[in-house]
Design brief:
Blueprint: E1 6-8, H1 17-27, E2 31-33, H2 43-50
Parallel strand pairs: 1-2
Organism: marine sediment metagenome
Protein name: Nucleoside 2-deoxyribosyltransferase
Length: 51
């Protein structure tokens, strides 16, 4: 049995399709990292203000 391919999924934190896309990749057998979305829908905006 082969190990799943690791996939780091990036996108706008406000994009609600990112978790759905991650789930699609998981169903195809990928090991997906998309846990960064947890900061919430305003994380991009707050990060830009910080920078």
């Amino acid at each position: 049995m082969t190990e799943p391919t690791n996939l780091y999924l990036i996108g706008s934190l406000r994009n609600p399709d990112i978790p759905l896309l991650g789930n699609d990749f998981r169903q195809m057998g990928f090991d997906v990292f998309d846990d960064w979305i947890s900061p919430g829908k305003d994380a991009d905006r707050e990060w830009q203000k910080y920078e």
